[in-house]
Structure formats: C-alpha cells, structure tokens
Amino acid sequence: MVADDLFLPNPHLGNDFADQVEATYQAHTVLAQPLPVIPAYGVRSAPPSPDALAFAPTLQYHVQQFNALPAADTTPELAPSAATRMPFFGRIWATIRSELHNVILFYVNRLQRTQTQQTTELVNIINEMSRIVADQHAAIEQLQQELEQFKDE
After folding, report:
1. pLDDT surpassing 80 at residue 139
2. Do the domain assignments include residue 90?
3. Looking at the domain assignment, is residue 52 inside a domain?
4. Is the separation of the CB atoms in 101 and 78 below 8 Å?
5. Of 10, 20, 75, 102, most Cβ neighbours within 10 A?
6. Interacting residues of 101 by C-beta distance below 8 A, sequence separation 6+
C-alpha cells in the first residue's frame, strides 16, 4: 500500500470532504481507545495498605501472610550415595542419575510453573478484592455518617 492511497477519496462516502473528515475522525477515535490494563506475567500486585484493612484485622493478617509466601524452589539436590563414591561406576551412575533427575524436573517444573502462575493470580485477585472491600467499607461508613446527619436534622 502506497502512502498516497491513504488520502484517496472513499467512494462510499461520496466526494464531500466533510464526510470523509468525519469518517476519518471516527475511525481514529475507535483506534485511539485506551487498551485494558493487563498485568505482566508472574508479577504480583501490591497488597492493600494496612490502614485500608484496619476494620478487618483477620482479613488484613491473612492477606499479609498470603503475600509473604515465597515462590517454590525446584533446584535439584542430589545427595551423594554409596554408588557415586565408586571410582569408575560412580561417575557413570552420577551422570545417569543427574540426567534422570533432569527429565523428572522437566515435568515437575512444567507443573510448578502452572501452579506458580495460578498462585500469583490468586494473590492478585485477593489483593484486588481486599482493595474493593476496603473502598466499599469506607463508602458505607461515609453513608452511615450522612444518614446520622439526616436523622439529627
């Protein structure tokens, strides 16, 4: 497509310049809509501030504990065995054993990656829901104060 083709009149709009400008403006406004915010993969959202959940100390405690959980460690730890201490056979056995562990870890890491992603999403969901609950609690308190003012009048 040549750049000059972009400025050719649209036969469906007729030759009216104002109609073409309006159609172009509408197309640009559709394309300029803000994109939804999609969090990055594996990134945890920040937990709500402790003051936001002061009305529910149990919820605040559990949200803090959930956010403090570390990611799972899947590095292999091969403890030495009696077979690996043998001069010739030990090296062969250690190599075979290491490769078998790598095969097993390949599948375990795939499962762990999925589980970690699910856990991260759960942490993000709980953090967002906690923020929503805190906002709703603040709104309810404000409405209760306004209601008390109306009762006093």
Report:
1. yes
2. yes
3. no
4. yes
5. 20
6. 76, 78
Q: Give domain status of residue 3, yes or no.
A: yes
Give the distance, in angstroms, between the CA of residue 10 and the centroid of all CA atoms in the same chain. Answer: 43
Q: Percentage of the chain with pLDDT > 70?
A: 64
| pTM for the structure as a whole | 0.47
pLDDT tens readout for residues 38-95: 655 556 677 777 788 788 888 888 888 887 877 666 566 666 677 666 777 777 877 8
Q: Are residues 133 and 72 in the same domain?
A: yes
In a domain? residue 47 = no
Cα pseudo-dihedral 10, 13, 15, 16, rounded to 10? -130
Q: Report the C-alpha gap between 129 and 132 in whole angstroms.
A: 5
Instruction: Please give the tally of structural domains in the chain.
Output: 2
Domain hosting residue 97, numbered range: 57-152
